[in-house]
Amino acid sequence: DGTLHKKGYPSKINKEYDGHKKGIGKTLYTIETVLLELGYPSIYWEVVNTKDYGVPQNRERIYIVGFKKVVDFEFAPKVELKLRLKDMLQDNVADKYLLSQKAIDKLNLKKPIRLPSENDVNAMQVGNSKSFGNSTSSNGSSYTLMSSECSGVIENRNNNYIFRKLTPRECFRLQGFDDSFVFPNEEKTLY
Question: What is the pLDDT of residue 160?
């Protein structure tokens, strides 16, 4: 949350935002420098991906933890991914989540659609003009969910292809929330 705490400082930034793919990015370097200047001698950072912690979503972030005294710290060990994207989906969804034929045709115009095998599912972006199409990793993880209504799936139910958006409940499941979580607002604000 950006607030410096008396004993420690937790933070998270998007990996792409920091340019981490090219080495330690400027943002990370700046944060480390400022924390050292503010008296945080123990600073740890790691690129963390949710699919390495049991959630079938490919979402990488850089987590930074700083301490006011010298301490040994280790990030949580990775856990085996046992769930797949299809495990996060609701069995029956309202028609309002289904894509129209016009929307499906637009998907085909942007990128070839990779249809899922029988009784499986592929993730797709349905509302972002730069990334129409679909991609699901071989381990069944979703791509990173966007903060808009553009995340969707193609379901193959006995060779009947269903193109649709993810429901808010499915999005929350892909964020690690279980079904007991109560939605705070009306549906449009949940994406």
Answer: 84
pLDDT at 11: 62
**Which amino acid makes up residue 105?**
D
- The CA distance from 57 to 123, in Å, is 10
Asked if residue 179 lies in contact with residue 169, where contact means CB atoms within 8 angstroms, the answer is yes
Answer whether 0.85 is exceeded by the pTM: no
* Residue of 45, 33, 47, 36 lying closest to 70 (CA atoms): 36
Please, what is the end-to-end C-alpha distance for the chain in angstroms?
Answer: 21
Task: Calculate the dihedral angle through the C-alpha atoms of 47, 50, 52, 53, rounding to the nearest 10 degrees.
Answer: 120
Return the sign of the alpha-carbon dihedral for residues 151, 107, 128, 81.
Answer: positive
Query: Does position 114 have pLDDT exceeding 50, yes or no?
Result: yes
Contact 35, 27 (CB under 8 A): no
Is residue 9 within 8 A of residue 58, CB to CB? The reply is no
pLDDT of residue 47 exceeding 60, the answer is: yes
